Amino acid sequence: LKWGGVAPLKNSMRRATIIQDCLTTMDIQLQRALGLTIKLPNLPLYIRARAKFAAQATIARQLSDNKSSTNVPLMQALIARAASHSMQGELVDSCVKREGVVAKQFRLRRILQDSAYYDVLEDAESAISEAQSAGLDKKDSWVLSDGPDCWASALRRREELQMEHKERARAIGDLEVQMKAVATSLDLTTIEVLLVQSSAYNMKGDLVDALSQRCDKLRVQIPLSKELKHVVACDDAAELDDIMAKMDGQGLDVPATWLLPEGPMLYANLAHAVMDLSHAKGLRKRDHTLKAATKKEAGPQVEDRELADILKSGQDDRIKGFKALLGVETMLVVLGKPLLDKLMERCGSIEKQACILRSLQKGAVTGNLEELNGILLKVAKAGLDNADVWLLPEGARLLARNHNRQKKLEEDAQNLANLKGDILAQLQQITSTVDIPAMKALLALADVYSVKGKEHEAVRDRCKALEMQVPLVEALFACGVTDDEAHLKQVMAKVQEAGLTEPSKWLLPEGVELARATARRVELLPKMSRLKEELQKAVTTGNLEDLRKVVGEAKSSGFDSPANWLLAGGPACWESASSKLQFMDQRQQQQVRIEGDLQAKIPGQMSSTDALAVKALVAQLDAVGISGQKIDALKERSRALDEQVPLLRQLQECLVNKDLAQISDLLGKVTTAGLDSSGNWILPDGPKAHSNAKQWQSILQEGEADKSFEREDLAQQIDVLGFSLDTSAMKLLISQAQACGVNEEAVGGLSKRCGTIEKQRVCRQQLLQLGLTLSSVEQAIADSQAAGLDDRVKSLFPDGPMLVSRARAWQSHLKQLPDGKASLPQKEEKHMNDLKACISNQSVEAVDAVLEAARSVNLDKSDAWKSAGGDQMAALVELHLRRLLDDEGEADISKADLDWQMHLMSSTLDDHEVKELVGLEFAYALREQLNTMQEQLRHRQDLQACAVSDNLEHVQAVHLSAQKAGLDVASNWILPDGPRIFAMVVRHMNNLDKEAKAAKEAVGEIERQMAELQTSLDLPAMHAVLVRAEMCKVNKDLKNKVQERCDALQKQLVLRKELQACSVCEDLTKVQRVIASMHDAGLNSPSKWLVKDGPKLLARAIARQEQLSDVEAVKSRITAAASKYDVTGLQQALSSAYDLGIAQSQYASSQQLFLGLQDSKNVISKSEELRDSGKHDPVYNLMVSNLADQLKELGCDLDSAVMKKIANEMAKQSTSALDATNPTERVVGQKVFEDLSNFSGLRDPVDWVSTSGVDPLTLARTMLEWSPDTLSRSLTLLPNIIEPVALQTFIDILRRMGDQPGVEATESNEPILKAAGKDELLANEVYVQLMKQLTANPSTRSAAQGWEVLQALSRKHLPSAELRNFVRAWLTKMSGSAKEEGRRERFTSRLSVVNEGEKRSRTASATWIQFCTELKPAFAKETLEIFTEACNRAAQRAFAAAA
After folding, report:
1. Where would I find the beta strands (DSSP E) of 1278-1431?
2. Are 619 and 444 in contact (CB under 8 A)?
3. Per-residue pLDDT tens for 1192-1202?
4. Cβ 761 vs Cβ 797: under 8 Å
5. Using CA atoms, how far apart are residues 1329 and 1325, in angstroms rounded to an integer?
6. For the chain, which has fewer Cβ within 10 Å, the N-terminal or C-terminal residue?
7. Sequential DSSP letters for 866-894
């Protein structure tokens, strides 16, 4: 320990032998110490110090041995171990240097191996340059055996790539020229061929990217354009929506996105087709609604012809609607001008007659003669007083009815005039009478018949005067018998007040005399007072009957003579009473007479319907004061007539009133009056008038329902026209909808659309007429943008965005034209002038001819032409030609708008009233015209679809169909654009025919090329010839063969590229997927490959797959070993990683862990860290055991303390680790218990001093292997008191096994078993001694005896729980193999201790091998069964005891 030469030796190690010699010197000294009689107290400490120095000597020897090693992890481990012992010097430096060289060469070898499969010259040169800079271009510089081969392979690959690079550069140059030439081409086949060739040469750059993008766009756009070409004839909305979604998904809704010049127009056609289908869908929906409406129950029908004529209405509205429909601009195309003019003329006449007809209907029910005369005068002025001129059949009938009504009203008027004359004559006659009742009756009659005048006033005044004088006369009669002077004076005062003081004022003759008598009586009243009582009773009575009775009685008594009176004044009283009686009798007679006259009229008026007559009679009866039941009945009839007559008149006149509310109110009044029942009517015309009014109400209600339906229909029409561009139809619909009260929001939306369309149509027309003035073009673009024509959403014209985009291109070319006029040669000047003239030329053929002439002389190569703006002018003409081509195939009026107008006309003609108004002749002509138009529309649609079709047969068939319909003659077309579209199809058909003929002529050449290409690998040539083959009819079998080869070659080229990438790919999954795809493609057989290097690349990919699988396996091994601190496994895995060239970055952490565990301090630290964690699971124990193994490897774990601790803890488990279900726990158990030195009760080998040497590892091995010598100390830790028993027991075992002379076996088991039964510690010692003697025993006889003793011991006594696991593991190991005993050298080393007979046996070797391979495993297996059974019995007993 204190020797001073060790540290300098470690600091400058040059050779391993120096430190080895020092170790030998130390061993000699320690061996001498062991031989001393008196043992040195620090000898164990010296032995441990020697072990550490031995570890360093081992590192030095390993460093020396690995000077030429290629095992990088081993060298790294040795360098790390040397560093942990602070070892330095040439030996360490040379190892460090070697490790760096080898590691670098491993990396470079992998790069060179991969470079043999590089496709890029720069990558191969980079790999070679890096190896060259490392000096590996020389064979002697390589330490790896296959390094020079890898270098040579990389050089060969570089030469190949250089040759390819030269060829590639030449081909790339040619390709670039061709690619620039097709940079603006639409020839997809040529572009694809060039891109395939560029891919073969791995070309990169903007040119390839641009052409690739163009190719991708064309691949998308060309198929989509083919789909778009068929949308004209498509009527499937879902299909169109799907195509539209595809277009929008590719951004082709923006015109600038299109590469195909016809693309924007085709997209516009699609948008137009979608709009037309939406239009058609609305049309079908309306048609369905109208048909459903016609199936409903018909409204109220009027059977009475006269009433029907009166009630008939709406002719003017219908004819106005029909006339407005004819006024729509599109209808001029549908009907043609001649038919339209005739219809408009008829509509004007009917409209005029309908206005007069309304007046005649009113005249038919009016009671006003003056109004009726005015109506007939109006009819005469209109020239319609003749029935023959009426177009409306009901007009003539109503005219006759008006004349009849005029006659009746004139008769009624004359009768009324006569009656009024009679009343006036009676008034004149009655003015000289005093008959007040007659006057009153006559005045009432005059009031009823509205008779006025002076006679009426005179009678009224006379009647009033008589009514005033009658009371005065009666009062004067009373005055003749009264004694009341004041009363007399009062009466006279009233007479004076009434102005009757003069006799001439009196109308009643009695009044004059009575007034005089009363005046005289006033004078004689005092003389006559005595007669008061007698006169008062008889004269003062006002009752005629009483007066007559008194006067009659006086007369019968003879008092009518004055001479018979005895009292003074008696005669005067008699005279007064008799005079009054006479006066009253006269009045009564007048009343009876007038009552008789009026009573006689009552029966006649009780059945009369003359309301005025009945009312007059009632007034007369009231005037004379007649009453009674008959009078009341007459009054009730008069009231009923007063109520019914105006109601009847209103019911009759309401037939020309269209106000449903007023009619409903009138019928409500009739119902309130109880006249809804015909029996309650007095007037005979009442029930019929009421029924007519109800029918009219029903008709108007039906009309209201029709109006509701009309509003719904108009709203539906608004929805339909939301997809239309026909502004004239929109305006008509807007006016109709506003008049009908349709939802204002819907009307407003349509009105807004109409305004937008008109604004955008103006802008669109400007875009279609662009000239060479830049300012006007810019203004047109600005106006279009302001109108929203450039926005696909805002533009209502589908081609709006396309036209704006084209205008911008036009503007761009105009801006690039030079300001001044450049000088050009005469020929070029002519072409320039021709191009400028084309801008205003509308002939497709002429413009195309000018362009073709300009192209034919290669003007684009002339600098003067370019500087003069010739290229820009040519571009403008090309845009103009494209515009002409687009316009040529576009319909002037869309099919949807024409269908809509035809639908409206057809549905209008379905109305029988409209048909009646128009006339059957015109209705038939209209139907014929609509059918013809429908047929021509179908032909036009087919022709439009043909204009973009590439199928010659289809185009010819459609052309023939149109020809058969006579549409090859322009004058037969109703549609104005028909001749133009037909001519375009003819031209297109001729072009297709020329192309077909040219393709037919090329068939022979194409078939020859295809025959040559059947064995070719020229994929671009195959593509080109196949494309040409599509244009003509070539041999199908030949074409199919080339197509199959082309497809196979194209597929294999793609797969070849993937295989090539696999050669240097680091992704195992990707390589596996590629190889699987090869198998799926049937290319796992070399004969299936067309590409020559395909099989080679596939083999390389398979090898790469295996290599990557190994890489993944090694990485998994590294990870698993690192996670369990398995340093040995980790070193092996790292060595494999270096050999496979795995980048160190992929396992850097595991590498760092590996190097760290080469330092015993780190190992101990990790162990302590694990121990402090407090875990005791199987993984923890495995990690700890692996760290313990590493400590042993480093020469630092001499006593197996950690493993002993694990063994002790595992022994405490209820279930043995050897029987655990957890695989990790079972592995740990086997690892711990198979090594007996891990038994915690075992003595330290250093303390168990032996004469076998001073190396602790040798001591540990010697301690547990067979020995013929006795023991100086026990193998296990025992108390001093029982250790002698253990030593004696070992002697007994030696004798029992025959290793020392002694008693026979049959008698020698007893002392051994007896000793084991004394104490469990002694049992442990006996088991360990037996396992020691059975390990590496060179004698078959001795070993056989030992197995017998062990079996006997197992049956009798068991060791401690911990040792039981060791015994089981040891027996299991022995029953499996004995390879450590199989070594020949160990057998010969122990041969000297075998008995002489066995040594001399010729079959010794054979016997030993047989014993080790057959007998010993059998002994061990049998003993294991015995021992296990004994352990199980012990466990059962322990369980029973615990229970």
Report:
1. none
2. yes
3. 777 775 556 77
4. yes
5. 6
6. C
7. HHTTHHHHHHHHHHHHHHHHHHHHS-SS-
Angle in degrees, CA 1216, 1221, 1227, rounded to 5: 70
Q: What mean pLDDT value characterizes the chain?
A: 80
Nearest alpha-carbon partner for 586 in 470, 675, 669, 709: 470
């890489």: which residue's tokens? Answer: 1111
Token representation of residue 181 = 């030439």
Tokens encoding 1373: 């190991």
Residue 1072 parent element (H or E): helix 1068-1080
Under 8 Å between Cβ of 1146 and 1116: no
The span from the CA of 326 to the CA of 901, in Å, is: 10
Identity of residue 1039: K
Backbone angles phi, psi at 1243, to 5 degrees: -75, 150
Q: How far is 858 from 869, CA to CA, in rounded Å?
A: 15
Distances (CA, A) of 568 to 63, 150, 516, 517, 563: 200, 192, 20, 17, 11
**pLDDT score for 1358:** 92
Buried b (16+ CB within 10 A) or exposed e, 1172-1200: eeeeeebebbbbbbbbbbbbbbbbbbbbb
- Residues 6+ positions from 908 with CB-CB distance below 8 Å: 321, 322, 325, 914
- Which own/partner contact pairs does 685-688 have at CB distance under 8 Å and 24+ positions apart? 685/648, 685/652, 686/644, 686/647, 686/648, 686/651
Q: What is d(CA 929, CA 997) in angstroms, rounded to the nearest whole number?
A: 42
Contact in structure between 356 and 382 (CB atoms under 8 Å)? yes
Contact 259, 217 (CB under 8 A): yes
Other Cβ atoms closer than 10 A to 466: 16
Other residues' Cβ atoms within 10 Å of the Cβ of residue 775: 8
Output the CA–CA distances (angstroms, integers) from residue 452 to 423, 462, 1302, in the order listed.
10, 15, 185
Residue identified by tokens 């057998």 is 1387
Three-state SS at 1339: coil
The token pair at 1400 is 């001399």
C-alpha distance from residue 724 to each of 280, 900, 903 (Å):
10, 9, 14
Whole-angstrom distance, CA of residue 798 vs CA of residue 275: 9
Q: What are phi and psi of 791, to 5 degrees?
A: -100, 125
334 backbone dihedrals φ, ψ, rounded to 5°: -70, -45
Instruction: Give the amino acid at 742.
Output: V
Of 1009, 1054, 1016, 1042, nearest to 196 by C-alpha is 1054
User: What would the two tokens of residue 795 be?
Assistant: 């533009």
Interatomic CA distance for residues 325 and 322, integer angstroms: 5
In sequence order, what are the residues at sequence separation of 6 or more whose Cβ sits closer than 8 angstroms to the Cβ of residue 1147? 1115, 1118, 1119, 1134, 1137
Both tokens assigned to 1425: 């069964």
DSSP 608: -
Instruction: Read off the pLDDT of residues 633-654 as tens digits, 9 standing for 90 and up.
Output: 888 888 887 887 888 788 777 7
Query: Closest Cα partner for 1133 from 60, 74, 131?
Result: 74
**Residues 166, 180 contacting (CB under 8 angstroms):** no
Beta strand residue intervals within 346-429, DSSP E: none
Query: What is the Cα–Cα distance from 1263 to 1073, expressed in whole angstroms?
Result: 59
Query: Are 1395 and 1339 spatial neighbours (Cβ–Cβ below 8 Å)?
Result: yes
Report pLDDT digits (tens) over 1287-1345.
999 999 999 988 888 654 445 789 999 999 998 999 999 999 999 999 989 888 899 99
CA distance 207 to 210: 5
Query: Which residue, 170, 206, 208, 169, is CA-closest to 192?
Result: 208
**Which pLDDT does position 1381 carry in this prediction?**
40
User: 360 near 402, Cβ under 8 Å?
Assistant: yes
Spatial neighbors of 1116 by CB under 8 A, at least 6 apart, are none
Please, which pLDDT band fits residue 737 given cuts at 50, 70 and 90? confident
